[in-house]
Protein 1
Amino acid sequence: MVVITITDEDENREKQEQYLFFKTLVENGGNYEINCTYGNILAKAAAYDNELIINYLVTDLDFNINIESTNDYTPLMFAVEHNSLSAVIELVNLGADISLTNIEGKSAYDIAVEKNYADIINFLEGE
């Protein structure tokens, strides 16, 4: 049996590689405003916990941080749904509106409570 251990360093390296690849695509004319599984690329970056791409989209490309997609989910809600704490922190620090609600009337905080994501609950309670 082979056991593979993934460290924080491996995850950070992967995020950096994804960011550099994405940035290169955009700088060479790639269309980042396409629809994808999560409705938009910022929501996907949030769900996949890539704060580097989130920061690039919002600060360098002026992407709407509160853009709504599937079922009125915002990128912050997708980050919470996927327990992506780094993305939650980055989005809130960049100005994501934590009071917005989805089609079911749930905020990002409500989703965190429903999923029992203690770290995210604690962070959002401090905001």
Protein 2
Amino acid sequence: MNIKTFDDGEQFPKQFLFNGKPYKGEATFINGYNGYESTEGDGMMCAIIDFSCLDKTKYPKIVHHYLTDMDGNYIQSKNRRGVRMDITFKRYNIMYNVGKAKYLVNYHNGISKHNDGSDFFDIATFTNKEKFNIFITSLQTKGFIESNII
């Protein structure tokens, strides 16, 4: 298990993975320090899925819900024990031949929400492949990732 530690003020990865797939939702850093010693998993970043990483009596068979970066390294920060955070990421998906549009791009900036709290996606339509490719390249340079998860 490779662990990457983020205690020096380093910037976190732009994207987190859970079971090899992009993760969006709540996460926390496990507080496994009792004042004398650290337990296994102390400071590890964990996905909160129905509080499964926090309640071992409710989910005794689940080993962990640790998050990884794109290289498969587990994320650890003992300076952030107990801190909860909401993980969002910039993403886009591509649809082909929708109505009169040859290329349709749905993209979410990681921030915009509808009134009900769901993610708001902007759209861009293209009939020209060259302009479409330029737009996709500009999204990728801005940190957007292609995702089929909407």
Protein 3
Amino acid sequence: MTMVQIGENGWFYTPDTRHPIPDTQHLTSTMLTVIRKRLLLAIPTLIGVTFITFFAGFLAPGSPIDAKLKERNDPAARARLMHEYGLDRPPLVQYVSFLLNAARGDWENPFLMIHLSHRL
């Protein structure tokens, strides 16, 4: 009869072969812990990537309103569009609004996203 010993790393060893037999309960709990940590690390990573991408759009020349108006230089239309798209608010307020809308799955204003992606 072969006896089984538990090693310090949680693996079972048979004394005659010393080939590890995995402890499935230990491996399952370890894997769930790793998955949980990775998912929790994804949150600040996504916030960091969106922060850098969002504010990189402000470094590009021009604005989405200039692209929408093209050759027309109407200050009233420009002010109306700036307010309509929320570009008259401070950049940090725009970013928080963007994050909240993205968390809800609300992508109602694709014009800005398409234009910002073309600017980058």
